[in-house]
Amino acid sequence: MSLYKQLLIGICLFTFVIFCGNFVVTLETSREQYRNQLSAHAQDAATALGLSLTTHIDDPTMTELMVNSIFDSGYFYRIRVVDITTNKPIIERNDVPQDTRVPQWFVRLVNLSPGEGDAIVMRGWSQVARVEVVSHPMFALARLWDGMVASFWWLTGCSLLFILGVTLLLRRMLRPLNYIVGQAMAICRREFLNVPALPKTPELRRVVEATNMMVTQLKVLFSEQAQRSETLRKEAYSDSLTGLSNRRAFDMQLQSRLSDEENASGHLMLLRVQDLIGMNQRLGGAKTDQLLTSVATILTGLQRNYFHNEGFLSRVRGGEFAIIAPQILPQEIENLTQTLSTQLKALAETGMSDVSPVAHFALVPFQVGDTPQAVLMQADQALAMAETEMRFFASPETPSASDSEADLHSWHTRLDTVLTHEAFELFSQPVYQCNNAHVVLHHKILARIRTPEGELVPAGRFMPWIHRLDLSRRMDIVMLQQTLNEMAKSTRPLALSISGASVADDQSLNALLQPLKNVPQLAARLTLELDENELPDAERVNILVSRLKDLGCRLGIQHFGGRFHLIGNLPQWGLAWIKVDGSYIRDIDSEEDKKLFIEAIYWATRQINLPLIAERVETAGELAVLEKIGLYGAMGRYFADASTLGVN
């Protein structure tokens, strides 16, 4: 029972006790007074009537007239004149006065006895008659009832005002307790909040100060753990000079890209700064480092503008840089080459390099299933050809522009048909508890499309065209609607990936969430997932999480690991889970640096009770290491391949 209800009941009981006590005291003190008043009233009436009848006792008409006059003038139960000699009444009047204001239960409760009085009527020196008067207590009961009613309303009004005042006072005084509850709930949501204003009450002030100190300490511990983890990641996977990913991270990403059928084919771009050793001797180390930093900045802008941050940029070694990019069309290659050539020439013109061209680069395609060694060898050969022929750019034979336009039209027609008819084939892959492979946490939804020939096309082949044709928002809505239709047939919790474009602005977000608003009973079993590289800014993520929370839905992050600085925002987002990218899981049982990195992420997320799930677990050795670290869940081919949603 809440404090307010207890207070209300307590004050009502207090009022009732006060009223009952007041009634008893008033009744006991007033009973004798009213009894004496009633007796005096009866005696006065009897005496007055006796004196009046002294000269008229022998006149029956006059006697009756005087008795009636007295009887009708007040509250009398009975008046009679009795002959002393025969003891028979000469005249008698009886009545029971009524007062509708006084209830009978009150009359019975008070039980006020009537007052009695008598007087002798004389004829000379002889006693002729006796006057007997009995007063009725109705007027006393009416006065007592009015007093009790007035007392009741007075006490009731005072009690209500007291309840209102105490309620407002308690709300103000106990408001910090609500903030403390909010703090505790925020910690459960992995947020760290401080009470903005300290209460004036010393006891509550100490409690609030203690909770604020606790929250601050938790936040500091988490920040320190996140900072240590970020430092570890930079040491293991970042280039100290340019801030880009290093060769170790590049090898992991390339291996992951080539081994996962859910990924699409793409291009590897390799750039090598010309005569780096010679420039280092001629211009000095500081100048050379400045050149490498400038090249890294140019490639970062290139990745952002041409690949929409979908590519993976790294400094492989020395003056060699690499970008793992999605598939690039011939006309895009031409624009990219011209842009990069212009920017590199500007470096030579500003004196940052004394050779021309500043660098050579090569672009080679790759397919899922290729080996990293073969792709790198092909890129090295193309780059060597460019250096030998003193060309800025080299690439193996690429499809003609007409072929690319035909592919573009073909894919647009195919995807538009699938989206119009909501004809995606839904597959799912189970996610298990890491230490209990029999417990399924949820199922991850995967999309396939079926060709007219009956072939199932994985997402890795058509998703690049979805992005290139700007169909991401439309696909997310269709996939969400199809997923909700399937959820209505079962009780399994599901996870569905969405694109960053669908949450980038309010209009897109409203369109995406509309299907969820129609079926709120299903939203609690659905978690939407955003790729780490597609996360909007922190404020936008807060809005997204809040909107999803209102619908009963949650948000998770998948393919996490490359943007580890985001971990500082995790406490305020209240995510459902984080899924670590499979490139950090592959061969974790034999590569100590990956194990240390996953342990760092685990301990950082454990501080805020955020579940950590491993993607693409493929061997028992990998799972054993993850279980030992303490990860919450795992998914991958070791457990099960993707299968049709209805048969999991």
TrEMBL record:
Xref: Gene3D superfamilies: 3.30.110.200, 3.30.70.270, EAL domain, LapD/MoxY periplasmic domain
According to the entry, every stretch annotated as the GGDEF domain falls at 264-395
Q: Which residues form a coiled coil?
A: none
Transmembrane regions listed in the UniProt entry: 7-25, 151-170
Q: Which InterPro entries does the entry link to?
A: Cyclic-di-GMP_PDE-like (IPR050706), EAL_dom (IPR001633), EAL_sf (IPR035919), GGDEF_dom (IPR000160), LapD_MoxY_N (IPR032244), LapD_MoxY_peri_C (IPR042461), Nucleotide_cyclase (IPR029787), Rev_trsase/Diguanyl_cyclase (IPR043128)
Q: Where is the EAL domain?
A: 408-648
- SMART domains assigned: EAL, GGDEF
Q: Does the keyword Transmembrane helix apply?
A: yes
Q: Which domain of life is it from?
A: Bacteria
Q: Which GO terms describe its molecular function?
A: cyclic-guanylate-specific phosphodiesterase activity
Provide this UniProt record's keywords sorted from A to Z: Membrane, Transmembrane, Transmembrane helix
The protein's name is EAL domain-containing protein
Q: What is the lineage of its organism?
A: Bacteria, Pseudomonadati, Pseudomonadota, Gammaproteobacteria, Enterobacterales
